[in-house]
From TrEMBL:
This is Succinate dehydrogenase hydrophobic membrane anchor subunit. It is found in: Membrane. The chain crosses the membrane at residues 23-45, 57-79, 99-120. GO terms for biological process: tricarboxylic acid cycle. GO terms for cellular component: membrane. It is a multi-pass membrane protein. It comes from Paremcibacter congregatus. Pathway: Carbohydrate metabolism; tricarboxylic acid cycle. Its cofactor is heme. The gene is sdhD. CDD domains: SQR_TypeC_SdhD_like.
C-alpha cells in the first residue's frame, strides 16, 4: 500500500514534492559521462609516451579543450548530485545537513573553477 495519492503518482511527486528531477539529472549526467570518459581514457592512452608540448598542443585544439571542459563540468555536477543525495539520505539533523550541503556546493564549485581555469590556461 502506497502513501502517495493517485495524482502524485501521475505527477511523479514524492513526499518531498520535488519529483524525480534530481534522480533524472544524475542519470543524464551519468549517461553523458560514458562517451566522455571513453574519449578521455582513449586520449590519455594515446599520449602515454608524449612529451609536455604534445599534450599541450592536444589540449590547445578547440575540440579537445571543449570536450575536456564538458567532461569536467559534467563530472563535477554528477559528483555534487551524488554527494547531495548521500547527505539527504543519511544525515538526520537539519543543522549538519545544511552545513554539509553548503560544503558540497562550495567544494564542487572550487574544484570546477580550478579545473576550468587550468584547462583554459593550457589551451589559450
Amino acid at each position: 500500500m502506497s502513501l502517495n495519492t493517485p495524482i502524485s503518482k501521475v505527477r511523479g511527486l514524492g513526499s518531498a514534492k520535488s519529483g524525480t528531477h534530481h534522480w533524472w539529472m544524475q542519470k543524464i549526467a551519468a549517461v553523458a559521462l560514458i562517451p566522455l570518459t571513453i574519449w578521455f581514457v582513449a586520449s590519455i592512452v594515446q599520449m602515454t609516451q608524449a612529451d609536455y608540448f604534445t599534450v599541450k598542443a592536444w589540449l590547445s585544439s578547440p575540440v579537445s579543450a571543449i570536450l575536456m571542459l564538458v567532461y569536467i563540468v559534467t563530472g563535477v555536477y554528477h559528483l555534487r548530485l551524488g554527494l547531495q543525495e548521500i547527505v539527504e539520505d543519511y544525515v538526520p539533523n537539519k543543522g549538519p545537513k545544511t552545513f554539509y550541503s553548503f560544503a558540497i556546493l562550495f567544494g564542487c564549485t572550487i574544484i570546477a573553477v580550478a579545473c576550468i581555469f587550468s584547462v583554459l590556461k593550457i589551451a589559450l
